[in-house]
C-alpha cells in the first residue's frame, strides 16, 4: 500500500500540497489546528484563508513575474489558482478574490477528495519518522516553532522579518554611486567591492531626514510585539531618536572614498549590499521600515544614485516565522537534518499568498513523487517557480536572508550582453522563456 503523506497546515501552501499529492495518487493526512487553536490573523476554520488583502496581485502572465507564477500554477492544475479564478472579482489587471467563497470552495474540494483525510489538531513537535510537509506559515504555533528551533538551532528560525528595500542593480546610477566595502575589507576583489555606495551632502542628508520624519507609516498589526525592536529598528524610528542617529548608524560615511570625486568627503553614505548570487539585486543596508509603500518610493529616490531606482520589493517589518532555508533545505525542499520532512509556504522564506501556494505545489509534487519511488527535480531557474526555489534553497545570501516575493531579479538575466530592448519587451522575453521551460518540466 502507498505510504501516506502528512501535511501540517491547511493554508495556501498546505492546501495546494495536499491537492497535488492526492491527484498523483498518494493518500494525504492534512493536519490543521484551526478552528480549535486560532492565530491572531485568521478569522475562520476554513482552509486557505486570506488573512489580509484579497489580492493575488497582477494576473499579467506576459510582463509580470507574479502573473507568470499564476500561469505556471494553472498549467500545473493548481487548486488554489483554479478556485481564485472561479471567485474572481473585478479589479483591472489584478486577480482580486472573493475571499470567503474562495476559502470555502478550497475546503470543500479537499474534504471531498477520496485520498485526503483531515485531522483537526495542532502538531506540537517536529516528527522523527514518516513523510511530512510542514506548511504552518508565518504564524506557526509557538510549540511547533520551539521544536523546529530545537532541531535546527536558534539562529535558524526567525520570528519577524525586517525587510530592507531591494533594488534592481541595473537601475542604480553608477556615475554617482561606486563599489567599495568599508575600509576596503575583504580577501578578494569581489569582497572588497561587495557594496554599492551612494554619497550625500549635508543638505541632501537634512532633506532626507525631513522626508523620513514626514512620511506616512503603517501601523503595527495586532499581535505584533515591539520586543524585536532591539535588533532591527525601523529607519524612521532611528531618525526620530535624533537627526544624527542615522549618520552614526547605517549611513555613517567612514572608511569610504568616492571613486568619482575622491576629494569630496560625503556627509552620509547609503550602502547597498548584494542580495543574490546573480548580483542582480541589492538591499539598502539597515533600511528596514514601516513607511507606506508610496512614501518609500519617493523617499528612497531622494538618495543620490537611486533617483531612477526600480524596487524588486519594498521594505517592511512583520510578525513572520521563517527558516533560514538557504542553509537548512536541500533543493527538494527537504530539511537536510531530517530528510523525511519538507517545508513549504511562507515558512520557507517566500512571501505572499501566491508564492506560498506555489511552494506548496512543488513540495506536494516532490513528496508524492518520492513516495511513489520517483525523483522530481525542481523546475529550472528560468521559470518563476524555479527562480523562487533556487533563491530560497541556495541562491540567496544566507547571512541576510529575508522573505522574498517573486520578481524578475531572481531569474537568470536575459540580454546580459547589453541588449537594448525596452523593459516591457525584456519582461516578455523572460516570460516566454519561462513558459517554454515550465512546459518542458511538466511534460518530463
Ligand atoms: C498579518 C498578516 C497579513 C498578511 N497579509 C498578506 C497580504 O495581504 N497578501 C499576501 O499575499 N500575503 C499576506 N501575508 C502573508 C500570508 O500569510 C502568506 O502569504 C500566506 O497566507 C502564507 O501561506 P502559508 O500556507 O505559508 O501559511 P498560512 O496561509 O498562514 O497557513 C498556515 C496554516 O497552518 C496552520 N498552523 C500553524 N501552526 C500549526 C500547527 N502547529 N499545527 C497545525 N496547524 C498549524 C494555521 O492555522 C494555518 O491554517 C500576511 C501575513 C500575515 C501574518
TrEMBL record:
Its cofactor is FAD. Residues 5-374 form the MnmG N-terminal domain. One of its GO terms (molecular function) is flavin adenine dinucleotide binding. It comes from the Bacteria. SUPFAM superfamilies: FAD/NAD(P)-binding domain (SSF51905). FAD binds at residues 9-14. Its EC number is 2.1.1.74. It holds the Pfam family GIDA. HAMAP family: TrmFO. This is Methylenetetrahydrofolate--tRNA-(uracil-5-)-methyltransferase TrmFO. It comes from Cereibacter azotoformans. The gene is trmFO.
